[in-house]
Design goal:
8 strands; 4-stranded parallel sheet; alpha/beta
Length: 311
């Protein structure tokens, strides 16, 4: 299945799995070229991925790594994780560490200490790194699929910030590519159709929101903060309406109810429904132009349902 755990996080999990593939391919080519001996390869440490997760990303990565028999990831979760979610996480092919995430933003070095991971072996999948470039590759295909629909506005959940960062990165990258005469083969519309698309991220007002995968107290590894988004607007890479919007709980509940009604049959959870919640809220505020093409991203339904069986 292309979406085995039911959320958009399956895309990011696949990208992380390909890093092991590319590493193995590189070692193979080095051995063929005589630059690496088998005895040297056997002494190389196997990297382990470490990440902070509210559940869905941990589930997706553990599932994908299990499919390819890759080293289990190390998952850092909050001590306030609901018991039923904790039980699911404990059953994953992963190492799980419970930490009080409400007190501070942990550094990459502290995360390695917390998970008993040696420096030089641990790869932090939460932070932005040129090794992984999560702001550019976790949802790059998704970004182009959205652009190809030529919407005026796109609404989606804002949790880790990665979804929005990928959208903004590829808006700016598309503009720069056009200026240098290049074009991403995945783009099926004109580059001039991309920069006018407003990207709106929904973040709950309430700390105890039902959309609890969007309520982290700290987001230390964001790449595009408010200043960066303002800069992209000033440079003409994204329109003024782009931004992160606080979304009231009543709209999150209404959006979830609408999407999951039997006649609609859309698999989602409150966190995945937040994009529609923001659209409903803005509509009530008179901020939605009915003549515009609007696209809502549902990021799915993952950890809070029985996961796929993992060998």
């Amino acid at each position: 299945s292309v979406n085995p755990t039911g959320t958009i996080k399956d895309r990011a999990a696949w990208e992380l799995a390909t890093l092991y593939r590319d590493t193995a391919r590189g070692y193979y080519l080095d051995m063929r070229a005589g630059n690496l001996m088998r005895s040297q390869l056997e002494t190389k440490p196997i990297p382990r991925f470490v990440l902070v997760t509210a559940g869905n990303e941990g589930l997706a990565i553990a599932d994908r790594f299990a499919q390819h028999n890759l080293p289990p990831p190390k998952l850092i979760i909050g001590i306030d994780t609901p018991p039923e979610r904790l039980e699911v996480l404990k059953k994953l092919r992963a190492d799980v560490y419970m930490v009080d995430l409400s007190q501070k933003a942990f550094t990459p070095e502290e995360m390695l200490v917390l998970t008993d991971t040696k420096l030089g072996v641990g790869i932090n999948a939460t932070k932005d790194s040129p090794i992984i470039a999560p702001h550019a590759i976790f949802y790059d295909w998704h970004a182009h699929e959205v652009f190809n629909e030529k919407p005026d506005e796109v609404y989606g959940p804002y949790g880790s910030g990665r979804w929005m960062e990928n959208m903004l990165y590829w808006q700016d990258r598309t503009k720069r590519n056009a200026a240098s005469g290049r074009r991403d083969p995945r783009l099926q519309v004109n580059a001039t159709d991309v920069t006018p698309i407003a990207i709106l991220g929904a973040q709950p007002v309430q700390r105890d929101s039902n959309a609890d995968k969007l309520t982290a107290d700290f987001k230390p590894f964001l790449i595009f903060d408010d200043d960066d988004i303002s800069g992209l607007k000033a440079l003409g890479s994204t329109p003024d309406a782009t931004g992160v919007y606080r979304t009231e709980e009543e709209y999150i509940g209404e959006a979830h109810d609408i999407l999951t009604r039997p006649q609609n049959g859309i698999n989602t959870e409150p966190s995945g429904s937040a994009g529609l919640a923001l659209l409903l809220q803005r509509a009530d505020q008179g901020l939605v132009n009915p003549k515009k093409k609007l696209l809502v991203v549902n990021t799915g339904f993952g950890i809070d349902r029985p996961p796929a069986k993992i060998p």
